[in-house]
Design brief:
It is a single chain. The longest helix is centred in the C-terminal third of the chain and has 15 residues. Helices cover 32% and strands 16% of the residues. It has a five-stranded mixed β-sheet, covered by helices on one side. Helix 2 packs antiparallel against helix 5 and helix 3 crosses helix 5. With 161 residues, the protein is an alpha+beta fold. The structure holds FE2/S2 (inorganic) cluster (2 copies).
């Protein structure tokens, strides 16, 4: 077993894990943070995306021990303890950016990372290119793309152009 210490959604966590444990397993099974989903286990669908030190990663192909000493944010961390929805979550809600919802946590975590890297004015092409690693079986993507464009704008600091 390996001892790991990390921050998850702002909370310090120390745990013993089998070194083979995937980060998504650790989050879901040990911490009971089940918002991160497993759709493929082979790094293709993006349902498992979380942020590791602020960057989107696929937690199905990240070992829990790789998060030792680092900061993890999951979908639960975007609006903790009944806080208002994060602007990107609100945009998915308003633009019907989901149907079954299975892909949605990963889509939103990818989208927030995208805004952090590329800003608040995102073209449709940029959004579609950046969603290459996130698969949705339900929506046809159009509403997801609209939601991300709106969410990106809504994440801009108040008063920004
Ligand atoms: Fe991680 Fe599909 S479960 S990419
Ligand atoms: Fe069902 Fe995307 S909303 S997989």
């Amino acid at each position: 077993m390996a001892k790991i210490s990390l921050t998850v959604n702002g909370r310090a966590v120390t745990a013993n894990v089998d070194p083979r444990t995937l980060l998504v397993q650790f989050l879901r099974e040990q911490l009971r943070l089940t918002g991160s989903h497993v759709g493929c286990d082979t790094s293709q669908c993006g349902a498992c995306v979380v942020h590791l030190d602020g960057k989107a990663v696929k937690s199905c192909t990240t070992l829990a021990v790789m998060a030792d000493g680092h900061e993890v944010v999951t979908i639960e961390g975007l609006a903790p303890n009944g806080a208002a929805l994060h602007p990107m979550q609100q945009a998915f809600y308003e633009h019907h950016g989901l149907q079954c919802g299975y892909c949605t946590p990963g889509m939103i975590m990818t989208a927030v990372d995208l805004v952090q890297r590329k800003g608040h004015e995102l073209s449709e092409q940029t959004i579609r290119d950046e969603l290459e690693g996130n698969l949705c079986r339900c929506t046809g993507y159009q509403n997801i793309v609209m939601a991300i464009a709106a969410g990106a704008k809504a994440m801009a600091p108040r008063g920004a152009a």
